[in-house]
Amino acid sequence: MSAMFPTTLCGVKLESFICNASGPRCTTLQELEAIGNSTSGAILTKSCTKEARDGNPEPRYQDVPLGSINSMGLPNLGYKKYIEIIPQLKKFKKPVIVSVSGLSLGDNLEIITALNKTDVDLIELNLSCPNVIGKPQVAYDFPATENMLTQVQKVCKKKLGVKLPPYFDMVHFDDIAAILNSHKVGFVSAVNSIGNGLIIDPQTERPLIKPKGGFGGIGGKFLKPTALANVRRLYELLDRKIDIVGVGGIESGVDAFEFVLAGAKAVQIGTAFMQQGPKCFERISNEFESYVKKKGYRELEDFRGKLKAL
Ligand code: DHB
Question: Average pLDDT, stretch 156-184?
Fold first, then answer.
């Protein structure tokens, strides 16, 4: 194994800044153990809800040349099961992060209150799930986000991060940054998939996935420029005490390098992890190492956020 690049997220040490994203291959104990056995810098769970869920009807995930589309519908074991297995995950000696995606404010408060009493290292509160029918993405509703964070910070005793959707308007970057800067948020993970895309198979004249008439979250290469822009703008607008985790279309060491240049302290791998499995972390890490060594850099802080002007 080659050198890894360590980092910290709100003071929690990660031996590698390259981690799994919540979503793919992180629902069951077996999948989470496979992440524990990989070089992923943390073990991040599938977003959990109050009750276990089977999720949406299949097919609900498809790869395409430029990425992926999914409408999983939050299949997960329910938060109590994730709490039960935290001690088994802690054995891998890396931070354990539980992604929380309650279907209501009350559910989020219940889940976070229960997580307070565990050894979980970080909580990633998902405000950006696009795939539950009838449930809008919270983080596109700024008053709802403000209220969610105000209530959550009253109960949360753990270090808290927020998973954001992609924003596409400069004013929206200002709006979300103002809310994050005025709440107790330790990190942001930017970004979730682009919600409600549609990919059509012209041969069969059908959508690629079944739920919601084929509408689903778009990940992979499609997402990278949007994700980089979100990381960069948030890096410019957020207080320095809020760390940024870059996620969206990272599949190579050079992709990871670009996210660090934009300002990310860690990166998460979603679609590439789904496609390639846990060995992708070491490959991306090796590619990153050889690229930054060639540039003469030794550690992330040598170039993090230092995107040059044209
Ligand atoms: C699902 C998809 C997401 O993008 C997310 O943030 C949470 C859940 C899903 O469909 O399971």
Answer: 98
Instruction: Tell me, yes or no, if the pTM score tops 0.90.
Output: yes
What pLDDT is attached to residue 281?
98
Nearest protein Cα to ligand 1, atom 5: 129
By the 10 Å C-beta count (0-12 exposed, 13-18 middle, 19+ buried), 244 is classed as buried
What's the CA-to-centroid distance between 291 and ligand 1, angstroms? 32
Q: How many CB atoms lie within 10 A of CB 156?
A: 21
Return the best residue to mutate from 74, 128, 223 for the ligand 1 pocket (most ligand atoms within 8 A of CB).
74
Separation CA 109–CA 118 (nearest Å)? 15
pLDDT at 54 over 80: yes
Question: Of the residues 48, 53, 69, 72, which should be mutated to test ligand 1's pocket, given the most ligand atoms within 8 Å of the CB?
Answer: 72
User: Measuring from atom 2 of ligand 1, which residue has the nearest CA?
Assistant: 129
Residues in contact with ligand 1 by the CB-under-6-Å rule are 23, 47, 55, 70-74, 101, 126, 128-131, 192-193, 217
Average pLDDT, rounded, for the chain: 98
Confirm or reject CATH 2.30.110.10 for domain 7-60+75-196+220-302, answering yes or no: no
Average pLDDT of the segment spanning 209-234: 98
**pLDDT for res 1:** 61
What number of residues does the chain have?
310
Domain boundaries, the chain: 7-60+75-196+220-302
